[in-house]
Structure formats: C-alpha cells, structure tokens
Write a structure and sequence with these properties.
- This protein is of the alpha+beta class.
- It folds into 4 domains: 98 residues, no CATH class; 56 residues, no CATH class; 48 residues; 126 residues, Roll (Chitinase A, domain 3).
- The strands form 3 sheets. A 4-stranded antiparallel sheet has the order 5-4-7-6. Strands 2-1-9 form a 3-stranded antiparallel sheet. Strands 3-8 form a two-stranded antiparallel ribbon.
- A hairpin with a 2-residue loop joins β1 and β2.
- α5 crosses α8 and α9 packs across α14.
Length: 360
C-alpha cells in the first residue's frame, strides 16, 4: 500500500520536503509541526471512523527515534519513514475495520471487561493510585473517557483476531507430511546430540580437592541411583517435592550451577560441531540414560569446573525424522502461522469490501 499519508512538509518540516538538509533536531521539529499544523485534521477514515494526523504522529514517534538512531542519511531516513507511514496507516485502518465489524453485529462487550482492564493498569502501572493515572492521561492529551474507549477497542480487536486464530489451530496429519515434503530443505540438519548436564563449581569455602571429590561422589551416585538418597543427605540438599526415585533432572535442578538447571539440565538438541570434542566423545560412548563420570575442565585464570552429563539421544546428519515429536511440533507451529496469516488476509480483504475506506 503506497498512499500520500502526510507530506514531508507537514511531518518533518518544509526544508526536508524541498530537498534541503534536515534540521539538527529533526524529532523536535516533527513534533512541533504535527502539533501546530492541523494536528486534528482527519487524514483517513475506515467504516466512518476518522484517523487524524495526531493519531498518526503518536504511532510514528517511536519509529522516528529508531530510524534516526541508525545514523543514516536524510534521503534514506525519509524513504524508510514513508514506508513506516504507509504500514502504520494500513494497520490503523485494519484495526478500525475489525472494530467496526464487531459493532455492526449484535454482539456487545460487557463493561466489566473494560473496567477490569483499566483497574489492572491502575494497579500495575500506577500502584493503585487513580489520581496518578488520570494525571498521566492528561499529560498525554487523553481523558478517562477517551482512554476507556481505547481500552474497549483493544479488547474487541483482540477478541475478533482470536476468533480468526482459532480457525488456524487444527492441523491434520496430512498437512504435516505435506508441509515437510514441500519444505524439506528447512529440515536438513547437522549431526546433533541431546543431553542433560550438571555443572559443579568450587564453593567459596571449598578447596579444589574437596570440590573434585564432591563432583566424583555425585557422578558415582548418578551412575548408581541407589546411592542418591544418601548423597542428598550427605550434602544436605533440599528434598522438598522430590519423589522417591529422583531422576538426573531432579538432581540437576538442585545442585547444578549453570543456566540449564531450571530445565533439569536439559540443553536441548545441539549441533555436534558446537560442542567440546571431549564432551562429544564421552556422550557418544554412553548408553541412553547413563550418567558420565565427572568431567573436569581447567579454566584459564580460574578454578576448575566439573560436568556430569547423561545422553538423551543422537540425530545423524541428514533430514529430520518426521516422526520426531519436536519436528512435528515445529511443523504444526509453522502451519498454524501460515493458516492464521492466510485467514487474516482473506478476512481483512472481506472487511475492506464490506466497509468504506477513504484516504484524504
């Protein structure tokens, strides 16, 4: 969509429109011009609802800052801004069409939904202080009534879009295989390994020898699960909500010091090329579900670190397995996204035919 939304003279100053160099304070000039010159002029309408220059300005302000931060030339800046203007107008028009479709139906939005959203905003953003909330609205040129309408429109828009999204949720087995066959290059992968890991470091009041011994004890316990209860007691590990047969993941959550601890040590599927060769060699020799011995690594200028890993699976290099649950989930998400995009495109096109859109 390419429409003359606002002239550059109106948005950023006459000198910019005429090809002269832009003023140094471009953003300030934009704000001043937009406020002073026809700030409430209607530049477009959708289903009888006007879109004003000030509406556009509020939407464009963040983009102006971001584009200027790139440090690009004025010519490039104006070119990209024109594109953003078109996209902004298009989005605002579609927003109004969706709301108009709801209001044209017999459906009504119960006031309790709007009241609840506003109360949530006051509680979350203003610490429950309604006076601060009202003062903030006034500073932004809004009133409680106009803001209430804005919130109501947002709820309606989200509801209408969610109804379209529901139609895209169902993905049949035939769609999964069809997508896989037509997008096979997207599912070529390198050799991958999935494993869980526990990372152990030296405690503040612990010697390297003591830390090494501790890592060895844990590795032995994980290789011989019957020793886990005694090891938990020995190191005074919190066993709250721990079942009678703790898994590697349960222990990882409680003793590992890396970012995977909250995931039970699960590092996900990773390319073999991106993993330390020593670790890869050890993992490949492990039976599925078998924990390794403590693997020690010396850190330059630091204390040693120990890893205990358990092998979960290996994917050979080549196409992904269509029966792999992770692959199925990935494809389902992709198909849902495509279905939703297609449904939205068709729906918005229907709304444009049904409701009048004018660009002035």
């Amino acid at each position: 969509m390419n429409v003359p939304l606002l002239s550059f003279a109106l948005l950023l100053g006459a000198s910019a429109a005429s090809g002269q160099s832009a003023p140094a304070s471009l953003e300030e000039t934009a704000a001043q011009r937009m406020t002073a010159v026809n700030s409430d002029r209607i530049v477009a309408s959708a289903a009888g609802q006007g879109i004003t220059a000030s509406d556009i300005r509020r939407q464009l302000e963040p983009s102006i800052q971001q584009l200027r931060a790139k440090g690009q030339s004025d010519v490039t800046f104006f070119k990209e801004l024109e594109k953003v203007k078109d996209e902004t107008l298009n989005a605002m028009t579609e927003h109004q069409l969706v709301i108009a479709e709801f209001r044209a139906s017999a459906a009504k939005l119960p006031g309790i939904y709007t009241d609840g959203r506003i109360e949530e905003i006051i509680r979350h953003d203003f610490g429950g202080d309604r006076n601060r909330y009202v003062a903030s609205l006034r500073a932004g040129g809004l009133t409680p009534l106009s803001h209430r309408k804005f919130i109501e429109d947002e709820i309606i828009f989200d509801y209408m879009v969610s109804e379209v999204r529901r139609t895209a949720l169902v993905v049949g087995p035939g769609q999964i295989s069809e997508y896989f066959e037509s997008h096979k290059p997207d599912f070529v992968r390198n050799e991958q390994i999935r494993f869980r890991q526990i990372t152990l470091t030296t405690g503040a009041a612990e010697s390297t020898e003591d830390a090494r011994a501790r890592a060895t004890v844990w590795a032995d316990a994980l290789r011989h699960p019957e020793k886990i209860p005694a090891t938990l007691a020995r190191f005074k590990i919190n066993t709250t909500k721990l079942n009678s047969a703790p898994t590697f993941g349960d222990i990882a959550e409680r003793i590992s010091t890396d970012g995977y601890a909250t995931k039970g040590g699960d590092s996900g599927w990773r390319d073999v090329d991106a993993i330390n060769e020593k670790v890869v060699g050890i993992i490949k020799k492990l039976p599925i579900g078998q924990a390794s011995e403590a693997i020690e690594f010396d850190l330059p200028g630091g204390k040693p670190v120990w890893f205990i890993v358990v092998r979960e699976g290996i994917h050979p290099k080549g196409y992904a397995d269509l029966n792999d649950p992770d692959v199925i989930i990935d494809i389902e998400n992709r198909v849902r996204a495509e279905n939703f995009k297609a449904a939205m495109t068709t729906w918005i096109a229907d709304l444009r035919r049904k409701h009048l859109v004018e660009i002035r």
